[in-house]
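If your schedule permits, I should be very grateful for your opinion on a structural question. I have a record of one protein: its chain in single-letter code and its fold written as discrete structure tokens. Would you kindly read the sequence against the tokens and tell me how you understand this chain to fold? Thank you for your consideration; the sequence and its tokens are set out here.


***
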Amino acid sequence: MKHLPNAVFFAATLALPASALAQTAWDMPTPYAEGNFHEQNIATFVADVNEKAGEAVAITLHPNQSLIKHPDIKNSVRDGIVPIGELLVSRLENENPIYGADAVPFLATSYEDAKRLYDAQKPMMEKALAKEGLKLLFSVPWPPQGLYTKDDVNSVADLSGKTFRAYNKSTEEIAKGAGMVPTQIEVSDIPTAFSTGRVEAMMTSPSTGVDSKAWDFLSNYYTLNAWLPRNMVIVNQAAFDALPAEAQTAITEAAAAAETRGWEASEEETKSATQTLKDNGITVSEPSEELNSGFKDIGKTMTEAWKASAGAEGEELLKAYGQ
């Protein structure tokens, strides 16, 4: 059986009783490179599970889109091609607006606010995932998002006409609100996209700036603290349920530890990655009042649009958040 393709093997293992399996092998695709703090956190999660689950399950990590491309990870977990995976939550906003709450600009601009927003968003995410046979294991934020540009920028008007890296619905709307041209670019393609002129600006975390060595093709980083988007690790519910109880406990306990550890690591990453940008020649600046207010106006418009798209559930989420 070990020579069967992954999808066939996974389907076959679900059909067998637990007693017939010496060990269940799980492949876990993730979108980001091994050195990224999310992936380091997940590597520890995997090690914890593999140690504590005994002979029941063994997870093999496949970072940097090496097994499955980022846009396909959620559906691959849902369809049983792989049992577990990581993805950016807001990539799913087109499927359900609830997934986009953490990517609404200037709704939550600190770790404290981001945690309150997650607490309000989490039960709704769990409900939406459950409808597709998926289970949320944990979710960890990126550092606050800032603006990267080749040239000095003092106002939103300075960005008009520039091509802008987009990776979800919210970043597309930011681009349009600022008069920029959104272009879909995955993290792994950022250096090439800038070097070839496909994009001229992006809004992302200091971590992604370091991972992509932004100093090779950009000169400015503005600390807008616009939002703290989160990644999540999900598991196929049927695959999870097929494991013995002790393995399920090992996974949920490792996931809880990974969530706590990941939030703490994200705050540390904000400080260290921002310093790394400076050390490599990026000019790190507070945004001008004009630039900050311009993006906040875009954020207000997007918050209202998100509320309208999310309907009663969105109103409930914002009420729980305290907005």
Summary: The chain is about 45% helix and 15% strand. The radius of gyration is 20 Å. Residues 245-279 form the longest helix (35 residues). Residues 1-21 have pLDDT under 50 and may be disordered.
